[in-house]
Amino acid sequence: MIKDSELILRPDGSIYHLHLLPGQVAETIITVGDPERVKAVSDRFDSIELRVEAREFVTHTGELNGKRLTVISTGIGTDNVDIVMNELDALFNIDLTTRVPKEELTQLNFVRLGTSGAFQADLPLGSFLLSEAALAMDGLLPFYLHSGEPDHAAITLQEHLEDAGVRLPVPPLIVRPELPSFLEQSDLPRGLTMTAAGFYAPQGRSLRLASGLSPALLTALRSWRHDDLRLTNIEMETSGIYGLATALGHRAASISTLLANRAEGTFHKEPARAVEALITKGLQLITEG
Ligand SMILES: O=P(O)(O)O[C@H]1O[C@H](CO)[C@@H](O)[C@H]1O
Ligand SMILES: O=c1cc[nH]c(=O)[nH]1
Question: How far is the CA of 260 from the centre of ligand 2 (A)?
Fold first, then answer.
């Protein structure tokens, strides 16, 4: 039995941060960083059965083309992702009355629809990218006990960085999820996504404070290749979603629209339009894929 201090429920029985009850969440879950993007997604639904708001976690559940969907905002960063993934999983896979994990587990499909910065010069602003795997540069996943071998890509990245005489501030950890079946055959371009612990120095940005990610490290990261993959983009949630979804037995995908090009120093002139296009594409893939 999981203690009151570990699995925290509100007086109405809802889970602590998300304020959600079992049954209120669909098995296909769209995550977005920005709470305002939740409405932008659910505005496209045919019907909405639930709207709940708690801190940065806004949740809408409804139906589109006969498919029940939940869209939830994580807010920014993998610290929030830790809460969202654990609490959503608990709503399905822990009996909240007996406080015991269920014998029969429900596998969920997570699809993140997010914004991100392109890391390679040739990736156009406003283009979409499906993260095949994520490089965790944020620090959440080492707090979970891991089993299994490290992803082979992480070993080749480590060797590549050593050859260049540079190293990441955190040991390279690459997480590769099982994609939801409706995305396995999608025509989206694929890449490896870096998940950072912040927006400025952790992504190599220097305003008044200089980033510790050196030009030599950035060059080495840009030039690394693994099979036909390379580091394509950088954002702040995907490795947490991928790592925890995989550990909990769920499927996950992260689709980004590229708002910045960090190699070129450019930013999308109409970011809202880019996000609308991402929502259109994402919902099409989820309901028709
Ligand atoms: O647009 P969202 O989904 O919030 O994602 C990206 O945008 C935020 C930073 O501006 C971070 O959350 C990053 O991951
Ligand atoms: O450069 C970017 C753009 C969007 N989100 C990020 O985290 N980084």
Answer: 7
